[in-house]
Every structure is written in C-alpha cells, then in structure tokens.
Amino acid sequence: MKFTVEGREQQLAVKFEQKYGDAFKSACDAMGKALEIIRSPDFIDRETWKVVSSIDHVTVHSKDINGLRCFAAKTNVDVPAYTLCEWHWNHLASVNDFKNTMKSSWTAQKLSDNIDLAHEYFYKNSNGNASNSAPRSFTLRISYDDDDGQN
C-alpha cells in the first residue's frame, strides 16, 4: 500500500495492510493537510487565528479551516526544533520522565522508516484527575523531513 504525501511516497508493508491500512491512509492524509496548514501564509504569525488560551509562555490558537477546527500551540524553548523532534522520535519511552500526566509510552509497532504506532497511557483523565482508568491512546507518528533536512 502506497500513498504520496507532499511528493514523497510512503509505503506500508503488505504484512501490515489488513490491520493498519485504514489508519495508515488516514495518517498520510492528515500529514498532507497538516503540512498545508503549517505552510499557509498566516500560520507563523497567526494574525487570523483566535487565541484560545494563554498561560505563562504557551499560547494556544484555533482557526476553522475547511470545516475543521484546527489548534496550534506556540511556545519558546531553549532547544532547537530538530533536537526536540529527534528526541521524541527516538526516545519515546522516556517521555513520561518529563510529562507528569503520562504513565508510560512506547512504540507499539514500527510500520515504516518514518511511521510508527505509538502507545500512550496517561495518569490523569480528561478532567485532570488521577485515575486508574485513565485514557490510553494509540497514535500514528510520522517523521517528516523538509528538503533542507529539518523535521
């Protein structure tokens, strides 16, 4: 199974097609849409976006785009973006060391060189309360390099 995202072919191995094919297609579609939004003229300054919340050094914006409400958080950190992306991609199991709402996280299945299925298990539920039945989430993660090699 193959899909093209921004002119780059993404391929899912035949052995994963039945189990992960629909999710793989959805992830490729979502990545294409996300890159389109990120590359839109007003994404960097967010002048046409609504501020949803702003706490300390993090601001969350939203904007309705093609019938969907999109959210983007903006913050400054003293680490290059490439380092953050590399760390998150290669050290997922240690994310819970730095995020107090997360109990554990790991790569459940590597689907291709730059797409995997990640499992995240949270300590807290959506109300922010500690919970033994906290949400579990499976996420398709896509690592994408621009032509200049940046994530």
Task: Write a brief caption for the model.
This protein is of the alpha+beta class and 151 residues long. Helices cover 23% and strands 37% of the residues. The longest helix has 25 residues.
**Helix/strand/pairing class, anyone?**
alpha+beta
Biggest sheet character: 3 strands, antiparallel
Mean pLDDT: 75
**Shape descriptor:** globular
The proportion of strand residues reads 35-45%
**What are the segments in which pLDDT stays under 50 over at least 5 consecutive residues?**
none
Structure description:
This protein is an alpha+beta fold and 151 residues long. It is globular, with a radius of gyration of 17 Å. It has a domain at 47-76. The strands form 3 sheets. It has a 3-stranded antiparallel β-sheet with strand order 3-4-5, with no helix packed on it. Strands 6-7-8 form a 3-stranded antiparallel β-sheet. 23% of the residues lie in helices and 37% in strands. The chain has helices spanning 14-38, 81-90; strands at residues 2-5, 8-11, 50-55, 58-65, 68-75, 102-112, 115-122, 136-142. It contains 2 helices and 8 strands.
Structural key phrases:
151 residues, alpha+beta, three-stranded antiparallel beta sheet, 2 helices, 8 strands
Any chance you could write out the topology, listing elements then pairs?
Blueprint: E1 2-5, E2 8-11, H1 14-38, E3 50-55, E4 58-65, E5 68-75, H2 81-90, E6 102-112, E7 115-122, E8 136-142
Antiparallel strand pairs: 1-2, 3-4, 4-5, 6-7, 7-8
InterPro entries: START-like_dom_sf
